[in-house]
Design brief:
The chain has 107 residues and is an alpha+beta fold. Helix content is 21%, strand content 42%. A hairpin with a 3-residue loop joins strand 4 and strand 5. The chain starts with a strand and ends in a 15-residue tail after the last helix.
């Protein structure tokens, strides 16, 4: 895995560490996405679909017509954010309530 930034999220009785790769951090800056928006998308998505290989794609709509699309995988039990972007929702959103993975329900 390439380097990045470990982001911590605390919940009652549980602490989650997610590695944001450098590429993902650059993309967050490009799309003006906050760490909070990306964390919310990863931890409380409206849907999660299967990506290529062993990757997952979390979706959460913002600003009406757009969504945060966060592509992640696991390194052991650690979620790793590979990239993120902010496309039009109509292109990718599949209606919600599809959850191929849930970070908060693992481990």
């Amino acid at each position: 895995m390439c380097g990045g930034k470990a982001v911590q999220h605390k919940r009652p009785g549980k602490r989650i560490s997610i590695l944001f790769l450098h590429h993902a951090l650059e993309r967050m800056q490009k799309w003006s996405l906050s760490e909070e928006q990306v964390l919310e998308t990863l931890l409380f998505p409206e849907e999660v679909v299967t990506g290529h290989g062993k990757r997952y794609i979390a979706h959460r709509r913002y600003e009406g017509s757009h969504l945060v699309r966060a592509i992640y995988e696991y390194d052991g039990s650690t979620p790793v954010l590979v990239t993120v972007y902010f496309p039009y929702a109509e292109r990718y959103f599949q209606g919600g309530e599809v959850f191929e993975d849930k970070i908060l329900e693992r481990g």
